[in-house]
Structures
1.
Amino acid sequence: MSLIKLKITDSAISANMATPLVTVLRDTQNPLLQLRFMKCRNVASWRILHRNKWVKVGEWPETKTRDIRHGFSVLINKIRDKQEAKATKDCFTTVGDLLNWYDERMGDNTNLSDQRKKDIKSSVKCHLMPRLGHVNIQDIDKNLIDKEFVWPLQKVLAKSSVVKKFHMIKAAFKDACDLDLLPVHPMATMRISDFGDFSEDAKESLLKPRMVPALLDEMAEQKLYIKMICMLMLTLGTRIGETILAKWKHFNLSFDPAWDIPKQDTKTKKEITIHLPEQLVSLLEQWRAYQKQCKYSGAYLFPHFCDSKLSIPYETVRCEIQSFSSGEWHSHDLRKCARQCWEEQGVDGLVAERMLNHTLGKTTRAYTGNAYALRLDALKGHCSWLEKQNKKCFILNPSSTPNNQVDDKEVNTVAA
């Protein structure tokens, strides 16, 4: 018998099926789980280890890997209770089983950003599991969701956060039902409005155009990478995620300077091209020269401090900006402030929406085009306005030497 230890997946099973010498696959994620091939090699048996004995609980390919993983806790409990343990497609007994499956599924979703995956994992761990993980799915009804979930949650979270958590648990049930892993969707007819008024007005920006002059003065005292991030967001109105994921290969700083933000980095999953005014081109060239001075020549504008092959973590930037603002405003307020500045500068509303890469209706998109020239003119005017507020705002380090090399005392780590 030849045993191989690996993470068991359906694709891994298929790959080893054609290798006669391999007879057993032992799961590295769960050492209590193994798959043993039968002589015909097209079929294999799932086994769970209990008291030094392997207990058969199903057959592959009838029972897929996900079915075993999702129902593992149920199966092991039945074995311990000396009950018949057989894997089925409907292995979700508790909401916790469902949430574990959903968390794993979203973690493998290539359409989601790393930050979104982290948010889902955090919500499942900190809010959904503690309140609903122990509940049997068959007991889910409107009264239980109100008493065990929504009402306790609204005591500790903002309305908008409660709404997000509510829609997340609904999404988990919907995905399971769509894949026939649950016979019914117990929350299909529930709406957040059933549990109270959770509507909120759009949040006003905590940064106003009148505050920009003081903001630019304070920005000069911040760490250089924080100044760069803030200036990009305040000038271009980009999102924090788009900004910290920026790579040099997406920039053209010579003829017709532009920043092509790929769709995988945008919230709307739509690519956007931002043509750059000369002030921003100059700032970016200073930043690139500064990185070279710090011996960094990697892919990212804002690399991770410990691993130059990664971008800087969102949490690091969030904490730095929170310290910079003393908690009075957040990174997203830079984007909102840019939008308000454009409005005061007379930029057409539709052009401004294009600049923000907001989702527009199909008809609007079809009849308005990308308005590249208008967007660039708006950004040129905005950069000139910013320079009037602080003439050195597009100089990376005002104390730098004429050749844009920063003084030694200003050099801090760009990458490990």
2.
Amino acid sequence: MSGSIIRLVEEDIARPNFGPSPADGAVAGTPVEAAHEYHSRDGRTSGVWECSPGRILETEHAEDEFCTILSGRVGIIDNQDGTEEIFVAGDSFFLPKGSSLTWVIYETVRKYYMAAA
């Protein structure tokens, strides 16, 4: 791997450099999350993240984030209007900084992410 090209490998979640630990903001169940972060600079991060079933409340999403689901099933509720979007393997989505969200992890979910504060 060069310094200019970073390959994200789903299996690297088996070697997390964050977690596993209880998910911050858990409001139902006991979700445990872990991440293997590949890059972090100037408020931008990218990696692979995994979380077991449960609900996680985020009153203010900390960054702009683009995600692609690799496995599992997750619902994300927009706390402003109550709508829920369900995402499964192959789905991608964007979450704007400051969003009020509830993550509903129906089955252990794994995603690639790129976030910018």
